[in-house]
Structures are given as structure tokens and as C-alpha cells.
Amino acid sequence: MPQAGKSLENPNNAQFFDSMACSLLLVALSRKSMNFKAFLPFILVASLIFSACSSGPETDESAEAAAEVVPDEPHDVELVVSGMDNMMFDTNKLQTTEGQRVKLVFKNVGSIPKAAMGHNWVLLAPGTDLPKFAVDAGTFLTNEYIPNSGAAASSVLAHTKLLGPKEQDVIYFTAGAPGEYPFVCTFPGHAAVMQGVLTVAPGAAEKMN
Predict the structure, then answer these.
(1) How far apart are CA 24 and CA 47, in angstroms?
(2) Which of 33, 145, 155, 163 could serve as 128's disulfide partner, Cβ 3.0–4.6 Å?
(3) How many CA atoms lie within 13 A of 52 on its CB side?
(4) Residue 1 CA: distances (Å) to CA of 9, 61, 154
(5) Do 65 and 45 fall into the same domain?
(6) Tens digit of each residue's pLDDT, the chain (209 residues)
(7) Is 206 a domain residue?
(8) Domain at 109, CATH number
(9) Do 13 and 96 belong together in one domain?
(10) What is the DSSP letter of 119?
(11) What is the rounded CA–CA span in Å between residue 121 and residue 108?
(12) 195 - beta bridge partners?
């Protein structure tokens, strides 16, 4: 039996609080009239609940993931984006050129555990309905909130893994036709404020490195 005072560390309790809070977040996202700025304090409080529920023995998994080396691939431009504990990207504007091979380095520079404040970087097709996509993405828990079926999946052009604190991921993709491509974090509740735009300018790609 669990020791007194340790009930929050029970994985079942953590899953319960996680599911309950995520459900509330998704309901709020589905209401177009919701004032997201007013809802932001609740999201932060929910994150602290997640953190308490998911606390447990420390492992070396995060350190190993952060130290993982990804072989470099030929690319024309390198973009670096960080996700933070305040549910913001360090930049909400990125730019590249049509046809360029892009190396995207994404880092979670926060300290709150992944179960409470995981971050990813998801590039979407122009014109994607962001509130609807965010609600749909929140149902793909087993795929780390990346839609892999249905209409929402067709909007995803590129994405990183869902990262915990001090982890990073590197992905490569080729910039499409000129236009504005939204990018978001799909962790439940984050897309409302954690978003930006990748602008693709017209023009021929430069020679790869």
C-alpha cells in the first residue's frame, strides 16, 4: 500500500488529474467565445497540479534524450525555436524561402515535468482552423497530441516530438509554396497562446550546405 502523504505520486491519481484537467481545457478551447487570456491562470494552475501528480523518482531518461545526437542532413537554412514554462515560444515569427530545405531545432528550455508542461512544434497548412485543430489534437493522447488520422492529420506538415524539460529535437522539411504557415504547440491548452507563423517567401533555394 502507498505510504501516507504519497498518494499524489500514485500513477493512477496522476492520470486522473491529468485527464480531468485536460478535459476542462479542451471544453474551453471548443468555446469560441472563451477569453483565452482570462483562462490562462487556470492553465498555469493545472500545470502545477500535473507537476505534483507526476512527481516521483528521478531518472536519467531526460538527460539521455537531451544528449541524443541526430546526424546532420544537408539543408539551406537552420531555424531554432524554444518552448518555455510560460507557455510561449521564444519567437512567433520565422521566415524561409520557397523550396529551401529547413533544419528546425526545437528546445524545451523549461523545468516543469513533461506530464505538466510538455512542448512540441507543429507546422500546419495555411488556412487551418486553429481552435478546431487544437481540440482535435487533444484527443490524440497516445500519439503525443499529433493527429495521425482524420481531417486534422491532413493539416500537419511537419512536427517535432513532445519534449520534456531540457530536451531538444531536430527535424527537416522542405518549405512549400509562398504563404503564411501557422505553427503551434499541441499539448492540451497550449495552442491558444503558444503559436506563431512561418512565412515562406517566393524565390529559388540556395545551394545546400
Answers:
(1) 13
(2) 155
(3) 12
(4) 12, 27, 46
(5) no
(6) 444 433 333 444 444 344 444 444 444 444 444 454 554 555 554 544 444 443 444 444 444 444 456 678 889 999 999 999 999 999 999 999 999 999 999 999 999 999 999 999 999 999 999 999 999 999 999 999 999 999 999 999 999 999 999 999 999 999 999 999 999 999 999 999 999 999 999 985 444 44
(7) no
(8) 2.60.40.420
(9) no
(10) B
(11) 10
(12) 184
Phi and psi angles of residue 185, each rounded to the nearest 5 degrees, phi first: -100, 130
Residue 80 to residues 19, 36, 102, 105, 136, Cα–Cα distance (Å): 32, 27, 10, 5, 27
Q: Beta strands of the chain (E only): which ranges? A: 77-83, 93-97, 101-108, 122-124, 156-159, 168-174, 179-184, 195-201
Which pLDDT score is estimated for 113? 97
What phi, psi does 81 have (nearest 5°)? Answer: -130, 140
- Is residue 209 included in any domain, yes or no? no
